[in-house]
Amino acid sequence: MLSVQFLVHNSGWNALLTKERAFFRQALKKTFSYLDLPRNKFTVSVVLTDDAEVHKLNKEYRGKDKPTNVLSFPQHEDLHDILAANDNGFELGDIVLALETIKAEAKEQKKTFKNHAVHLMVHGMLHLCGYDHMTDEQAREMEALEIAVLQELKIKNPYAV
Asked: What's 31's domain CATH number?
């Protein structure tokens, strides 16, 4: 079971969240269902914020002095901790999304803001569950999962040219 908490740090997200909260929650739960994790009580927080906050977090935690579209902060670094989660619940971590960057990327890539935001939530969720894209093999595995989840949500492959 996955519980999703949305934290709005920038009011620019309010209209989309009001309209799409259930869809966002469905996307995260669909992602979770693809993973071979115990079906215990898991929680994820989605922080909907702006470039300024993400820039600050990116600089502090990743040493990168610029905003980015999504940051993931896993509660635990070891996937074995997630697999050993007990029935009392388990906090997966936080997914942080930057409003202005996502809007600009969506426009540039000719995607809807909603679909791009959902893709980044799925991407962030996979990071929380131990997936990464540091090697070509890891990237292929992670992208394949993203594409599969998004396809079920009727969102086109975000990596197709």
From this structure: 3.40.390.30
pLDDT in tens, the chain (161 residues): 789 999 999 999 999 999 999 999 999 999 988 887 766 778 999 999 999 999 999 999 999 999 999 999 998 776 666 666 555 668 889 999 999 999 999 999 999 999 999 999 999 999 998 899 999 999 999 999 999 999 999 999 999 86
- Long-range contacts: 70-77, Cβ < 8 Å, 24+? 70/95, 70/96, 70/97, 70/98, 70/102, 70/120, 70/121, 70/123, 70/124, 71/95, 71/96, 71/124, 72/96, 72/124, 72/125, 72/127, 72/128, 73/128, 74/127, 74/128, 74/130, 75/128
Q: For residue 127, tell me if it sits in a domain.
A: yes
Q: Record the pTM.
A: 0.92
Domains: count for the chain: 1
